[in-house]
Amino acid sequence: MFGRDIGIDLGTANVLIHVKGRGIVLNEPSVVAVDSQSGKALAVGEEAFRMVGRTPGNIVALRPMKDGVIADFDLTEAMLKHFLSKVNVKGMFSKPRILICCPTNITSVEQKAIREAAEKSGGKNIFLEEEPKVAAVGAGMDIFQPSGNMVVDIGGGTTDVAVLSMGDVVTATSIKTAGDQFDLDILSYIKKEYKLLIGERTAEDIKKEVATVSPEGSSNEMEIRGRDMVSGLPRTITITSSEIYHTLTESVGHIVHAAKGVLERTPPELSADIIDRGVIVTGGGALLHGMDDLLSEELKVPVFIAEEPMHCVANGTGIILENLDKMSSKKVKI
Fold first, then answer.
1. CATH-assigned architecture of domain 5-28+73-133+313-327
2. Which residues contribute to the annotated binding site?
3. Annotated binding site for ATP
């Protein structure tokens, strides 16, 4: 039994693992529940996520990743070890090769931290690849041709925008406005407007169910429960899509601004290709109602949502691993 190749989408909100020959074998939240007294990890992933906001004082549910990079090294390592042992990929004689994705503008120190965490979790050769490039491959773009492809990857912690050609990033940017920021916007709006405290999970449910970024958005409404800040008692309110639309305007504006910035720095020949081919949106943020229409209107080019936006990066790692041997002659290991 030889070590297999593994692709890891080490996201701020979720970790996805792709194993060569098996496809995506794991998709769990990037959460670790820790005993604050002993510092011991008690639960990881789905099990820990269920504890968010529902634990006694000595147990805290933490996210070891922040804005696409490692915020807590030991917890990230513990989380990766747990996930890798869960998917059971260690060979008897050899360790697997691991390809991990990272945002485009992380520092060499942050890259080193990701590499070390993967090595300590049992990887042999660790390859780092830029997230939008992997997302584009996973979305089915042929980025190895001499033509322009543009991808907007809206994850949990970061939004990565890149124009790719000849298998590499031509222009790119990464901003720390993404899914988590949308959740915070919703939380603070409901706190300010209704004097109601809700948890992170409720905010995420609102984002998935009723949030829209299109002015002619859906007219959905949703009942939510939380704690009244005045009386301290539980209370139920109903919120609508149009309320959330106004709440998200500023954050979504940052993403539009970042995409415009990348287009402005793109060589004209590649810009012409993007008008023909359009822009592909990947990541969980692609599922936000009206995101494609808004981007299309602002960027003046066609915009498409990838088929399985949440899985693009993980699927892309699989495709790149397949081609790793062909590419490794020109691959630079950091």
1. 2-Layer Sandwich (3.30)
2. 12-14, 156-158, 204-207, 284-287
3. 12-14, 156-158, 204-207, 284-287
